[in-house]
Design brief:
Layout (H helix, E strand, L loop, with lengths): L2 E3 L2 E2 L12 E4 L11 H20 L6 H14 L6 E3 L1 H10 L3 E4 L2 E6 L2 E7 L4 H5 L6 E5 L2 E2 L5 H8 L6 E7 L7 E6 L1 E4 L3 E7 L2 E6 L6 H13 L5 E5 L8 H11 L4 E7 L6 E4 L11 E5 L6 H11 L4 E4 L7 E7 L5 E10 L15 E2 L49 H9 L1 H17 L6
Parallel strand pairs: 3-20, 14-15, 15-18, 18-19, 19-22
Antiparallel strand pairs: 1-2, 4-21, 5-12, 6-7, 7-8, 8-9, 8-10, 10-11, 13-14, 16-17, 16-21, 20-21
Helix pairs in contact: 6-7, 7-8
Length: 444
Amino acid sequence: MKRSTGKAFTCAFWLCVLISGLLFFQGSGADVKAGTDEVYKNIEVFAEVLRQIEENYVEPQDSQELIYGAIKGMVESLDPHSAFMTKQEHKDLMIETKGSFSGVGIEITTRDNLITVVSPIEGTPAYKAGIKAGDQIIKINDEPTNDMNLSDAVKRIRGPQGSEVKLTVRREGSDKPLDFTITRDVIPLRSVRHHQLTPEVGYVRISNFQSKTERDLKSALRTLEEGEIKGLILDLRNNPGGLLDQAIKVSDLFLDEGLIVSTKGRDSSQNMEISAQKSDRPRSYPMIVLVNEGSASASEIVAGALQDNKRALILGTKTFGKGSVQTILPLSDGSGLRLTTARYYTPSGNSIQLEGIIPDIELAFVPPRENGEDTRPHFLREKDLKGHMDNDKHPEEQAPEGEEGEAEGVDERAEELLERDNQVRHALQLLQTWNIFSQIKAAP
């Protein structure tokens, strides 16, 4: 593992799978440390078994498939995040880190041993077809998924642009399974979105950490900061992670000093401490970071760095707890090895492996009602009373009917977000209260 700059690693990530982790790239996989004589004896046994299968098995077998199968089994026995990749899988990984892939546009995970949709990506074929968060995928092209792992499900759902895939889902509230035939397309992965929640509070969502995340975040912040915002909500919910260097750079945008992350591995070359550098554009406004069980890996690095440096308040539910680093090792035939090589630690020295980031304010997400009804209580106000007096402001100073409380610069999507998302609403209220309390003077 090598540093490419004073605080950046070259790395990559396996996209759209919630268990994805921090990845480093290394230039060559040719150097192998020799083990003991016992290791070579076991290799001889492996070669012996391979020869017996090739000569005596009832049907001819492809030797490369046998060897690849053996390697996959060996690597998968290490931990859930280490994996052997074929040449094509390795190539696909390289493409995905650039920000696009061919598929239907859903983020999936395993929940209760079922392949479950975390969310459809807005504007993609799956989104347009009507796939919803929480849908349980019980069949892919009529093949049951009950014995299918997450990686196999991803492979079957993805495919060439223009081809079709049939997904059979079980949805809460539906009496029978629903079938969706979806045409695959190139899915551009936009990792950063932003909204102006109020004239003084901005909102930024990072859905994953890919090669352009820092650049796109800078652009979003420039837009929001034109209005001199006094608070920011950074949404990392359901962000499975990604490129370590991007997590470091994102953290550094909000920190002028202090440790961001440290890594410790078996080899001393894996031991590093990455600190923040003073920013050209200081950002002193208060921040709230939203996290949940789907916030993993690189997301946890950002949340942990901002929390431990007292830069932001963390709100939501406990994160995934992915505290290991994977190094991508290219192999001589074009295949690749994703190998867990280090653990990472938050600035306070805590490993979040299995523990996760614990929010400062724990608040579960409450999904809105499906029928879209406004369940907020309605209170009678003076303006509702018959014969009420008018305000003594001049007519041009009064808000038009039906627009009271609507802020200039607040877009419709921001209003929709506030309506359906209780965690965002609570974060906004906290930031507004924060600004109010900062103006209150202490008693003499």
